[in-house]
Amino acid sequence: MNLLEGRAAVVTGSARGIGLAIATVLARNGASVVVSDIDAEGAAKAAADLEAQGLRALAVPCDVTDEAAVDALVDACRTTFGSVDVMVNNAGITRDRTMAKMTLEDFKTVVDVHLTGAWLGTRAAGRVMRDQERGSIVNISSISGKAGNFGQTNYSAAKAGIVGLTKAAARELAKYKVRVNAVQPGPIRTAMTAAMPPEALTRMVESIPLGRIGEPEDVANAVLFLASDLSAFITGIVLEVAGGRHM
Ligand SMILES: NC(=O)c1ccc[n+]([C@@H]2O[C@H](COP(=O)([O-])OP(=O)(O)OC[C@H]3O[C@@H](n4cnc5c(N)ncnc54)[C@H](O)[C@@H]3O)[C@@H](O)[C@H]2O)c1
């Protein structure tokens, strides 16, 4: 199925992990994809790999906390591919520590990348999509923003903030036929979870009703649904991709 034929998509933080899986699934479904990451080399390699598979991809380095860089990223998609139909705000980091040990810098840095980054991406894409009277924005939150995770006061706060941002933006942009939704993944097999202490990860997986860790493609398929016209009457929702964890 070519659900996104003729559409152009931007995916932040897509040099690897969930972002790369999203870029790949969107491109395999017909989209021209801007692969973007703070890791310029990684983004260039990921875009080259997609092109080698016969898919359309452009690498644009971007730090999502940099206002001018995010505006330029969206502009690069519009000038190269002619439109911005899908914006996926995915870039993220963790700086896990209990609150007793967490520095203010750890807190601010994580909130800045996730929440400010998603706000800048939503605003930049929303401006273009409003004029097009078409578009779908997908913000990657986390089940940690619903339930709260030990050692993640910064991350959980940022991911819960993304839900508020998504719903408020969905209300503002609905009259322009622009939809804004969020996805809340549970534990997914990426570098982010590989960095967790193994016993903590095992405990987490044991608490997943479907009995396994998620794969990046599980998240990417949910994003494809929200990005495509299959979800044409859906805006302002939070789609959990967590195997039933914290349902
Ligand atoms: N892995 C999980 O279990 C899980 C669960 C829930 C939510 N998420 C969310 O999914 C998203 C992707 O996570 P992942 O597991 O693939 O992580 P990852 O660490 O594998 O990939 C994150 C990517 O974001 C990039 N990045 C970091 N800071 C950036 C910045 N300032 N500007 C642009 N790019 C930046 C990194 O270079 C990296 O390529 C994140 O928002 C994360 O919070 C992950």
Task: Give structural notes.
There is one protein chain. This protein has 247 residues and is α/β, with parallel strands linked by helices. It has a single domain (8-241), classed as NAD(P)-binding Rossmann-like Domain (Rossmann fold, 3-Layer(aba) Sandwich), CATH 3.40.50.720. It contains nine helices and seven strands. Strands 3-2-1-4-5-6-7 form a seven-stranded parallel β-sheet, sandwiched between helices. Helix 1 crosses helix 9 (216-227) and helix 4 (104-132) runs parallel beside helix 6. The longest helix has 29 residues, at 104-132. The protein is globular and about 50 Å long. It starts with 7 loop residues before the first strand and ends in a 6-residue tail after the last strand. It binds nicotinamide-adenine-dinucleotide. Nicotinamide-adenine-dinucleotide binds at residues 12-13, 15-19, 37-39, 42, 62-65, 90-93, 113, 140, 142, 185, 187-188, 190-193.
**What CATH first level would be assigned?**
Alpha Beta
Stretches where pLDDT is under 50 for at least 5 consecutive residues are none
Strand count: 7
Structural class: alpha/beta
Number of domains: 1
